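Below is how a single chain appears once it has passed through the pipeline. First comes the sequence as given, then the structure the pipeline wrote out for it. We keep one example in the README because the format questions we get most often are answered faster by looking than by reading.
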Amino acid sequence: MKYTPLLLLFFSLIVISCKKDKLTKETQNGANTFSCLIDGQIFKPAKSEGLLFNNDPVLYGGLSISNDYSIASITAAYKASYPQKYITIEIDHFHGVGEYLLNNENNIITYTEYTTAIPFVVNYSSLHTLSGKVAITKDDRANTILSGTFEFTATSPDDPGRIITVTSGRFDLNYKK
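Resulting structure:
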């Protein structure tokens, strides 16, 4: 009985130190959040701790709309350590809230890793699998908010045997006009 407070303190410290990183919440208020699971591992944008390139954005994108075309794009970057990782979502013929399938060359998600070892750059693209989707859940152009979810499977054009699966993707972007 006299060890109970000590045991409670010990287990509390273990629980606090084992706090797991989690995906961002699915929001629609322009919170500038982005996360997903890449082969089961959490991906979130993060800046480098170094002095160089520290002001580079790690989450950016928006809409380009004219009479001839409309494109929605989002890029999220993890630059805190190597491998550096980038995910870019591009939706051509963007028309607002709805589901966009990655079953053609107009809608593409790419994932790129920059490493310190050969091959230095590894690209993956949904263009080679034509598998996945992006669901836009909020398109508020007055307040420049774009929110949604995504999932896809991609292969490397350099090595079709390299496959990644991205699940539970979500974003809530307050973009610039």
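The chain has one domain: 22-174.

See the next section for the split statistics.
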